[in-house]
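From the shared-data thread, chain only:
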Amino acid sequence: MNIETTFLFIIEVVGTIAFAISGIRLAAYKKFDLFGAYTIGLVTATGGGTLRDMMLNLPVFWLQTPVYIAVTGLSLAIVIIFRRVLVSHNRILFTFDAIGLALFVVIGIQKTYAAGYPIWAAVIMGMVTGSFGGVVRDILINEEPLFFRKDIYATACLAGGFVYWLLMVVGCPQLWQQIACAVTVIGLRVCALKFNWALPVLSYDIKSQTHHRE
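Structure, as tokens:
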């Protein structure tokens, strides 16, 4: 591995740990058994990257090495050991989810662009990489996916991608692009939580319409 490849691998492993812990933590809250919790953690950590690689016709990343299987097991052990803290505090879940989201957006952009796709496609694949694992996680634990709620989630991924793109256009070093992208994603998620930022909700008032017709 060269330095850049090694750095991306480290980011991917850290992101895998963060996302796996967020998934396992939710599974523990829902009282899943150990196998179920491990499965939720693995799906959360690998779901977005799997879809990305399939769409880009690349070898699925976690099938090339057992590292990600082992890292998910490590994440399960962390949740078991520190379960009192991790399961009872929602801010812990938010922290790990935000970190995993940010790092996976960076990985998605980097891998897509390195595969020869244009930067606009890389931004979209960054969003897919960051958010799709969480979508599958929420579906499996019978929750409404964050991706489809009014929360600033997928929007944060896209914003981070556009910051990456902008810094690329002006010629900033790649490391700056990666850091700025990750900080943007995490910053928007934190601000959305703190200031209750949300996208407008598409709704239709059936009761009001029925009353008007009467």
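The two ends are 71 Å apart (CA to CA).
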